Amino acid sequence: MEILFIHPNFPGQFRRFAAALAREPGMRVYGAGDAGWMADTVPLPNIPVIAYPTPEEVSKNTHPYARSFDGAVKRGQQIVQTLLNHKRQGLEPDVIIAHPGWGDAFYLRDIFPGATIIGLFEYYYRVRGADVGFDPEFPMNFDDIFRVRSLNATQLLALESCDIGYCPTDWQRNCFPPHYRQQLHVIHDGIDTHTAAPDANAAVMLPDGSTHRAGEEILTFVSRNLEPYRGFHIFMRALPLILEARPDCQVIIVGSDGVSYGKQPPAGQTYRQRYLNEIADRIDPSRLHFTGHLPYPDYLKVLQVSRAHVYLTYPFILSWSMLEAMSAGCLLIASATASVQEVITDGKNGLLFPFHEPTALANRAIEALSEPDRYLAIREAARQTIISSYDFETICYPAFIQLINQNNP
């Protein structure tokens, strides 16, 4: 069987699935992605990659609501122009697995009519009841709402371009209109529970040269970027109360200063500096350790030394980091938002608090830091949740193989 994965930043979310399929007997696996986006990615062994030129930028004259769709059309066109050259040389995949959120799958059916096209559908934008308008600190106006609604033009054409699709979680699937859900399966990308595992001997060296070990009083926070969508502002506002009550606590904060989701701060500013300035006169800054982005092994060590790990998110796509933290045996203190509540039950495999209440977060963190032995059963339950529902080898990969086989007779 010949399988082509398409993602602008290949392998992206397909890293584990593509690598595992490439090891299967009788499978020939290819990747395709944007040459510019993939410049810094680590290639997967035994998977040839087709790089297409980065599409031209969207014109400033394009209506703001339509810019995302315009960019998706350009990308979809660029992909098929590149793949047509390879088709003439014999490329004829049986299955195409694409992340269609940037327009990648728009025209694939027209040049590969015999292929089964499977889409990874991450998110369908909703103007109410999800991330949009969730945080009163960042209010939306009608212009924002109309722009967000228009973003779904790409999702709708992508849905029509694929034979079948899958979503990482039930909550993400339920964001899509009801009449599309029947073609969307729920399959998570999977967690490597052997690697993301507890380690009582773990130690991490921080940028200031200090070393901290499992068993110490360490509070951790991880996000790809330190931004409001992942509750960074709420976490920072809880710190003065936590640090006052727990004088020996050290705080490790992993994440970069960019913005993955939501509005950018004013030019020249970062959310990290904004919220650090807000609490600067109420904390000892030497107890806060900002690491920036970390290599994966170092990031795992941060999870393994954590006594309590904080995770917040708007009602939005769930981060891998939350599931990896649970797999590593962390005590999760997480926001009681819908995507989180699909995984965490308060008091069973984690501790929940209302997203908008930093005092509630502080109180839960103080309790967790002061009585670590009290929460050992919750830590173990967190890890078992990931092993039983999100383990790559035993749960997610078999479901992915089944999806391919059922739709490629």
From TrEMBL:
Gene Ontology molecular functions: glycosyltransferase activity
Record keywords: Transferase
UniProt keyword annotation of Heme present: no
Keyword Transferase: yes
Pfam family, one: Glyco_trans_4_3
GO biological process: lipopolysaccharide biosynthetic process
Segments crossing the lipid bilayer: none
Domain Glycosyl transferase family, first and last residues per copy: 41-194, 215-384
Protein name, entry field: Glycosyltransferase involved in cell wall bisynthesis
Species whose genome carries this gene: Nitrosomonas nitrosa
